[in-house]
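Hi there, hope your week has been kind to you so far. Please have a think about how the structure follows from the sequence. I've dropped the whole record in just underneath, so have a look:

_____
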Amino acid sequence: MNLKRLLFCGALLPVSGMLAQPTAYAGSPLHAAVRPSVFSADRFDVQVLTITGQVTDEKGEGLPGASVSLKGSTIGANTDAQGNYTLRIPDGTANPVLVISYIGYAAQEVAVGNQTVVNVQLKADAKSLNEVVVVGYGTQKRSDITGAVASVPKARLSQLPVTNVLQAVQGSVAGVNISQSSSVPGSAPSTIIRGQNSINANSGPYVVVDGIPLSKTGGSLNDVNPNDIESIEILKDASAVAIYGTNGANGVILITTKRGTTGKPTIRYSNYAGVENFAHILRPRNGEEYVQKYKDYMTQTGQKLVNPVPNFEELSNYNAGITTDWIKEATQTGVLQDHNLSISGGTSNVRYFVSGAYLDQQGVIKGYQYKRASFRSNLDVNVTDFLTVGTSLFIANNNRDGGRANLLNATAMSPYGQEYNANGTYKIYPMFPEQLYTNPMLGLTTDRVDRNTNLNGNGYAEVKFSGALEGLKFRLNAGYSYIPARTGSYVGRSANDLLGTANTFFSETNSFTLENILTYTRDWGKHHFDFTGLYSAQQRKYATASGSATGFVNDELSFYNLGAGATQSSNSFADRYGLNSQMGRVNYSYDSRYLFTLTARRDGSSVFGANTTKYGLFPSAALGWNISNEAFMKNATVVSNLKLRLSYGKSGNEAISVYRTITTNNTGRSPFNGVSTIGALAGNLGNANLQWETTLSRNIGLDFGFLNNRINGSLELYKNNTKGLLLLRSLPIITGYSSVFDNLGETSNTGIELTLNTRNVTKGDLKWESGVVFASNRNRIIDLYGDQKDDLGNRWFIGQPISVVYDYKLAGVWQVGEDASSQDPGAVAGDLKFADLNGDKKITPDGDRMILGQTAPKWTGGLTNTFHYKNFHLNVFIQTVQGITRNNADLTYADETGKRNTPIDVGYWTAENKSNTRPSLAFKNPRGYGYASDASFTRIKDVTLSYVFGAKVLDKLRLGSATVYVSGRNLYTFTNWIGWDPEAVQQSRGVGDWANNYPLTRSFVMGLNLSLR
């Protein structure tokens, strides 16, 4: 039969079947699934069958959020707060069957027949934990997993205003410590899984998206639209991560994006819009407080007060009573909006998911902004019964353009400083003749671009064998990414650069991944066996070119013509990285009771030395025992699920940059016979013997469920030892080199993790569920250089965590009348008093400094409470991070005291207030004390209230589903920290990058999620 065909939304439909003979294919599942979305029932008189009913538990109480779907299609609905549902299926669907499922309960299939009301009672089925979980290079039933694999709650992946999905994961998974030291729009948080293994090498996790690495390609999770993500799994122990070999030493984050399913096209739209501001403001002094502070400073330093303010330019505003709130001038109400549109569906042979998204965030500090436009297309095609091919394509464009106000300078300005010149331009030195701090608004006058694009294309082909080879599959994965990036800036006269300085920087990263995966699965009797084999190759090429120029006759050309500058310079760089790998994994289970996993991976990395093998072998083994499946547990009605897991294995770390094993030189210019000549300078000292840093991991896990899984969770105990650290060893400077990488030392991480989920109330219209996560990690340095000696210069101490605060112990403040001469000669009233730890009656750096705390948390936790009442849902998430000690830059301003403004909360000593924690304004901090402070906090991280529209409203609006919500993030922080935020790192003048001084923000948004019928 030769029929004309029309490609419509990924499905091939016969034209004659649609128009000329509308009932000819009425019994076709394809026609039944697609027809309602293509034609309006009003225009074409397409009939639908409406099924209603209630889904209840064994006690007859309604189950909210249960899934009710038409088997073989994507037609489905979720139950409301009372467990009621309404489902519309095309009339004429042959033998319709409903599939009803709910987490913790056995799924049921019910034939509809002639019924229009279908009520279903589900039975608890904690023992058959058939939830499919993504693991390395495949999937497994959760009940069959032997390793430590944590799934991110899916509720965290929607209805939260985040630009990076890790911001939503923060605090919700035990053992995963995510922190954000700066809230600059478009910045990514840092992540550590189960503690810091390495001292100098990278300790961040390996990120894989749809089976293809995102790490080491130049991309970041900022490039992945959170709304495109279907699930996130985090692999933590050796059994789970060994399959990734060298990439798994610091844990693995597996992200799976949404894909199409068989059935009618589903159109979804979601958006949110809202505002943000600083979660907490460390307020500088107002005019009166500033004047008093200066008066006290002059008194305490023994100087005569001539003027009430320290600088000439402040006098006119002081006399006129004019003050400026510099924080208000440099900041604004931030605005953010996010829009997402997706279409998914397909036939039994072609399935697709297409999405587009746009994010626009205008920052709280003026000039800061972030825009992201992204597009994704995921396609799966069954070419034949044995061949399936597919793609995962996405493009993400990131824009961080714009000059920026300087929050550091805004906090330092005198309230009497002058912001503008008479002509309306910004005054460069508001507190002239003070020139340490320029006008915080000058950055807004600069030209600046900062953009990058991630073009990422992944494809696969999978062949399934039959006959004697049934169960055997071969899959070819191929991934390629191209990431061009561009930055440019020009600082001119209005920003205090009288010559004009222009800079440009271009880079491109090309990466490819090629994986050959062979799997074999066989079941016989009570035995299950599967094998996964892998051969893969990865390569990344990186190249940059940059230029700069100074000395422009005017500011008109910006950075677009460097040749117009009087002095130019240029630079370029390129490198290449490669990794070849082979892997094998065997899973065996007997009667779903006894589980065994054996994995080995061999990696060869280009970063290692010529004098040693570039290959490393990383094996692991794991055992699992489903105790609840044993015959003696049949009558244990209280215990729903009980599984014991044991794992042991080794993983590697190569996380240093390329070319560190070879000796290289740098270039420099010097005059020779009156001519500028290029010469060679000592650069990197290579180590041709450099090889793998290895981590040996042991894990004991217990998965449990009680009272029909009403209480469930997992408990993990682990110990990791990392040896042969890729350590940057200090060298005598006389050698011409300051350091070299070597395999030295050992660290350990020991910890406990608890995940607990409970259904507290399940009566009537009210439901209450809770989730708790807890993790504690003990990080220690076991050895450094083989001699069990500390490295005081780097603050590395045997038996202590890698990152510690080592300083004097504060014992108070010297008060008037106290004699400091016997312990601290030269100290006067108002100076800090330090403890004499060694009892020699003097304060010395050798004998009176100690470890005051660690910069990594001793323990972390999260508490989620979710309340359901009818169609309303309230989710409250609280995060806690405890046991952190950090030096506090907001408590010391060195020699700037007296002229710069200081926060009112910081305070200072006077003879009258007799402060015992803060020094006088005359104190110069000669010992460089860092003001170690407790940075622990408990935070109301996010609260979301949503309303899910019922069937009656949806019928009137002709929608498939609709949810509206309001959400607040970072609402309040309980802490003893004095500063902007205990998590934010604030840089002092001349230290670090002032552009990252962007404290935690609080946001409030309203959102809408819709799907069309």
